[in-house]
Amino acid sequence: MEILFQQILNGLTLGGIYSLVALGLTLVFGILEVPNFAHGAFYMVGAFVSYLLMTSVGLNYWVAMLGSAVVLAGLSVVAERLVFNPLRNASLLHPMVAAIGLLLFMEASAQALWGADFRQMPAPYDGIVNILGATAPVQRLLIIVGAFVLMLALHLFLTRTTLGSSIIAMAQNREGAALMGIDPTRVSMLTFAISGVLVAVAATLFAPISLVSPSMGNLVVMKAFVIIILGGMGSIPGAIVGGLIIGFAEAFTAFYISTDYKDIGAFLLLVVILSIRPSGLFGHGGR
């Protein structure tokens, strides 16, 4: 029982981070209908900003997280204005190529500025908690609580506020929302800012139990794409549920089979689910 509960905690940890990253990705896809391949680079920058604010400036972990969220929100808006917005009316290929170019530019810039070495972010809490016989590092519990609190806050924002409702309306029908008086430019900038905040918080939560490097976002964003395909492109519930499914699949595959096959297990699960539901779990427009 203790072993099972340990794997549930691991699955919730991974699933929470994957869901946050996938949420930012699916929000942007809902507005642009273009996959933002640079999303992993934003994740990487978020981790580096928090790391540098803690180690070089000496800020508290939570202040560093807030600073990273502000920086990534601003950087995401700049990317929307300079890269994606000018290509809004172009064919699908153009913004996809632009996103890949932005990804390569950001990774190369990070490597030039900070080097290619792996770095360890200081963990704010290094204690161990015993829950039902299973040992859980406080940082992992912090990831689980932080991720789900942020997902709940995003849900309340999208469903209980005028700005949130405008994002959903724009994602469902851009032309119709514009005719109703919703400003597409404002909504697009707000969506990118939210995406930047989500990815910065996810990176800062996960960095203390992983490593910070210029290439750290590649595998994470690949799994985020798997998640939004699994959950249904543009579906917010799908991003959350898909992230948890992939997180649990990795945790149980790594323990009961081998850590070498944890990524393969997640992708095999994607193939199985899509063979049953080709449009994804929430692929019929449910948000």
One letter per element, helices H and strands E, the order comes to HHHHEEHHHHHHH
Largest sheet: 2 strands, antiparallel
Overall residue-averaged pLDDT value? 87
| CATH level-3 fold name | ABC transporter involved in vitamin B12 uptake, BtuC
User: What is the C-level CATH assignment?
Assistant: Mainly Alpha
- Across the major sheet, the strand order is 1-2
In terms of per-residue confidence, which ranges show pLDDT below 50 for 5 or more consecutive residues?
none
- Tell me the overall shape: globular
Helix content: over 70%
- What is the name of the CATH architecture? Orthogonal Bundle
Q: Figure out the total of helices.
A: 11
Concise synopsis of the structure shown:
The chain has 287 residues and is mainly alpha-helical. The chain is built from 11 helices and 2 strands; from the N terminus they run ααααββααααααα.
Task: Please describe what this structure looks like.
The structure is a single chain. The chain has a single domain (2-276), classed as Orthogonal Bundle (ABC transporter involved in vitamin B12 uptake, BtuC). The chain has eleven helices and two strands. The protein has helices spanning 2-32, 39-55, 61-84, 93-114, 138-160, 162-172, 174-179, 184-206, 217-231, 236-256, 262-276, and strands at 128-131, 134-137. The chain is globular, with a radius of gyration of 19 Å. It starts with a helix and ends in an 11-residue tail after the last helix.
Secondary-structure topology with pairs:
Blueprint: H1 2-32, H2 39-55, H3 61-84, H4 93-114, E1 128-131, E2 134-137, H5 138-160, H6 162-172, H7 174-179, H8 184-206, H9 217-231, H10 236-256, H11 262-276
Antiparallel strand pairs: 1-2
